Amino acid sequence: MLCRIGLILAALCLGSSAAFSVSTTKLNWEMLIPQTEPLENFFEDVPFDQQQALRNLLYLEAYPKGDVSEEVAAAREEARNRVAVAREELEKQGVDIDDLYERYKKWAAEVERRGTLTEPKLDGERISISGYLLPLDFDPDGTTEFLLVPYFGACIHEPPPPPNQVVYLKSSSPYAPTALFEGVTVTGTMRVQPATKDLSFVDGSSEVASAYILEGDTIELYPE
Hints:
The protein is of the alpha+beta class. The protein has helices at residues 2-20, 48-61, 70-92, 97-114, and strands at residues 25-27, 126-135, 143-149, 167-175, 182-191, 195-201, 204-210, 212-221.
């Protein structure tokens, strides 16, 4: 009789643990991007001389319009002259540099928009994902806030990945990486929620946008 009761209790315990267990979905970075229609590469069919002219125009547009120092004013004027020469050369080919610029801006805006798209089904899911850690606070005893990025070197001296390829990680306990861009696997609860964080460098800082927040339970070194 006692044996039978013990078996029943064991079965109930197993059933209870199964009912409350939460499966973990292993993600790769591509799974953070929702499926969309393919977007053609704008530059694929643009000849090199037109690409160079467009770069010159973008370079000029980056300069401030108002009063600037003599050095900046001279550089801006030099850029303006390069654009004038390019405009004349393209006109001989029947190409309007301003139209080229407007088409590029439309394409670039669509690229930027797609970089903010997220997968709603991941909200509240328990997941694990591997990537590279960028601490938002440097403390030898560890910190709880990081950016998790898909490749080594992201965000350092180059434009960051799009927001849907950056995860803001909030660890449940402090973690002290041994190096910048330490490869790890993080397990926790995913939130589809935008965030903008200030990432500090030796020579300054910049804001990095993320489309996901991961409430991390565990951080493990990724096996080399």
